[in-house]
Write the structure tokens for this entry.
Amino acid sequence: MQRRGAKGEKMVLVMVGLPARGKSFLARKVCRYLRWLGHEARVFNVGSYRRERVGQNKPASFFDPENPAGAQARQEVATAALDDALRWLRGDGEVAIYDATNSTRERRALIAESCRREGVPLLFIESICDDPAIIENNIRETKLLSPDYFGMPTDDALADFRQRIAHYQRAYQPIDDDAQSFVKVIDAGRQVVVNRADGALNARVVALLLNLRLTRRTLWLTRHGESLYNVRGRIGGDPDLSPRGEEFARALAAHFQPSPRGLTIWTSTLQRSIQTAGHLALPTTPWRQLDEIDAGTCDGLTYDEMRRQMPELFAARQRDKLRFRYPQGESYLDVIHRLDPLILELERQTAPTLIIGHQAVLRALYAYLVGEPVEHCPHQAIPLHTVIEITPSAYGCDERRTMLAPRVDERRSIAPS
Ligand code: F6P
């Protein structure tokens, strides 16, 4: 697979911070982003190791640094997770994300030494947050749903978790060594401090961390209304909407009545996308990155014509749709990489956003948003006249699809697979 960073580049990202500072959220986001860009990334979460090996429902006293049995058990699971991460990196793994509090200098020195012996660079990602509202929100939205508190009354769970944080707080030593590579994310991105983060992979990780916002907001994805090319089964081009496509544009505007507060609308620079936004009567931003996959010399053909006129090319696309690049055009992987700056912009936005795009480009975006393997993305169903609503949740996202009138028969404009 083509990669943005050097192929085979390996590293460990080490999360640092007190409980309920959004470390796991950041770890999962970074992991999803790197996987989407084609890197083998995986999160090694020490909390899961602890639950599996030592058991869940451990009271706060287990996390007391003065409790020798607890400290030893925690040390053992932390080591087991790190060993697994480093073993995985010896194989196909590229970026291991080691998700634990790693909140003392001593623990971090041990990790740094293990990575040095293994010859893999590391970057610490420390999440620092003193904003009580953000911490409270994190506890309620993630920790209380954790298996650690399964079946426990909310108030008891809250009290226990606050006690657990207090134990960690007594032993916590923030990163203060400028000789190390680190990123400090302060108050959920209000401030980001970067130190010695060189290299292509680090650059991607830092770019994402600089743009991430914790605000939860809904996103809607939809393709443009049916175009005159869709009617004839032709791909690409810059056609206008068909009469049915126009009807969809009106139905879309009605669907967003009343429009969510602050709704932001992004289109591609192609007519069918801009026209679809036409009845929404709200400002729209056209993005070239959202333009449909460039079909190069095949632009304007039907799939049947392609099959007859260029059988070898057609077969090559059937074999590997993700990597196949149209002559003088693009592959799905090219589309993913051109969407990278748009993803960062999307992460930076806090407003609810409606994206009116195209089949291939939305498949690529959707794969990022829901964390679907990129190998699947060229085959993902993104039908015409369907609004896909995506709302982030604590551990992923919820999705709802709404078909709007009029229905269209897309058989001729859908690539056989
Ligand atoms: O058919 C509509 C369309 O948006 C074309 O412009 C584009 O080439 C195609 O879909 C992408 O889908 P696939 O990769 O399945 O051919």
Summary: The chain is about 40% helix and 15% strand. Residues 1-5 have pLDDT under 50 and may be disordered. The longest strand covers residues 386-393. The two ends are 20 Å apart (CA to CA).
